[in-house]
Amino acid sequence: MSTLLETASDIGGEDPEFLIELIDSYLDNSQSLLQQLYTSFAQKNFEVMLLTVHTLKSSSSVIGSEYLATLCRELETNLRNQEYEDLDIKINKITDEYANVKSELEHEKYH
């Protein structure tokens, strides 16, 4: 949370509404990215998966979700190295961690 609050302050100053906008934007975008990740996996479109997980990694890192970013980085590395085994397990771990991050962000947003 401290990284998120720091980022919001750096970009939006003291505007409390900016933090809410930042959280909403991250949640909306990351939800779409997760859907795209599942779709590209089902289609075995590893290039799209790579771009999608790279984007999710970067945005998760910006808001301070280092564990989620690490999981994305691991999947990204596998895709870059064309190591396609257990991708579904890795995607499920990312989804599970995203649920934790979402819960924390929504808690922060309403408090």
Structure commentary:
By secondary structure, the protein is mostly helical. The protein has a single domain, classed as Up-down Bundle (Four Helix Bundle (Hemerythrin (Met), subunit A)), CATH 1.20.120. The protein has five helices and no strands. The two termini are 13 Å apart.
Describe the structure concisely.
The protein is mainly alpha-helical and 111 residues long. The protein has one domain: Up-down Bundle (Four Helix Bundle (Hemerythrin (Met), subunit A)). The chain has 5 helices and no strands.
- Helix percentage range: over 70%
- Number of DSSP helical runs: 5
Question: How many β strands by DSSP?
Answer: 0
Proper CATH architecture: Up-down Bundle
Separation, N- and C-terminal Cα atoms: 13 Å
Low-confidence stretches: none
Structural category: mainly alpha
The CATH homologous superfamily: HPT domain
- What's the story with the biggest beta sheet? none
**Which band does the percent of strand residues land in?**
under 5%
Protein traits:
Four Helix Bundle (Hemerythrin (Met), subunit A), about 0% strand, about 110 residues, mainly alpha, single chain
Layout of secondary structure:
Layout: H1 2-12, H2 16-42, H3 46-62, H4 66-80, H5 87-109
Helix pairs in contact: 1-2, 2-3, 2-5, 3-4, 4-5
